[in-house]
Amino acid sequence: MEGCVFCRIVKGIAPASVVYEDEKVMAFMDIQPVNPGHVLVIPKKHVARLSELDLETGAHMFKVAMQIAEALRCSTIRCEGINLFLADGEAAFQDVFHVHLHVIPRFKGDGFEISVAPGYYRRPSREELDITAQKIRVCLENLGS
Questions:
Q1: What total of structural domains would you count in the chain?
Q2: Could you tell me the residue range of the domain that residue 18 belongs to?
Q3: Residue 94 near residue 87 (C-beta atoms within 8 A)
Q4: Residue 50: CATH number of its domain
Q5: pLDDT in tens, 31-74
Q6: pTM for this structure?
Q7: Which has fewest Cβ within 10 Å: 7, 48, 61, 121?
Q8: What is the distance, to the nearest Å, from the Cα of residue 71 to the centroid of all Cα atoms in its chain?
Q9: Which of 38, 98, 100, 102 is catalytic?
Q10: pLDDT at 1 exceeding the cut of 80
């Protein structure tokens, strides 16, 4: 996609500080990092939504993210923990519509927070959970056929 900044990075048209690259994925430094060492892992093929990503590439992205997480932990970059984050869709705060997995090094007091909606601490009943699980199972079964 011509207007996609990540596609331009893959093609070498836009600059990036590349951490890893192979035939399927590329990983590079986020230009607006939560913390130093914040890396993005993307598929080289343009896909806007997670559901458009083939399973093999998705699994490979996660494998590369795991390797980067381990590299962050053994580097001199401050890293007491790791967050993996993938936003899928505008409502989930996806800002670049090319699938990307954030690998974010974390440390106590770094200031990064994930806020929750009011009512988050109300636990649903087992019945509510079972009803929701059934709705998801039905769709999973339909996807498999």
A1: 1
A2: 5-144
A3: yes
A4: 3.30.428.10
A5: 999 999 999 999 999 999 999 999 999 999 999 999 999 999 99
A6: 0.92
A7: 121
A8: 17
A9: 100
A10: no
Q: Which of 32, 39, 53 is nearest to 85 (CA)?
A: 39
Q: Name the pLDDT band for 145 (thresholds 50, 70, 90).
A: low
Active site residue 100: yes
**Strand partners of residue 83:** 104
CA dist., res. 90 & res. 13, Å (int)? 26
Does 114 have pLDDT greater than 90?
Answer: no
Angle subtended at Cα 22 by Cα 46 and Cα 37, rounded to the nearest 5 degrees:
85
Locus of tokens 């559901």: 51
Residue-averaged pLDDT of the chain: 95
Residue 1: partners with Cβ closer than 8 Å, 6 or more residues away: 7, 46, 98
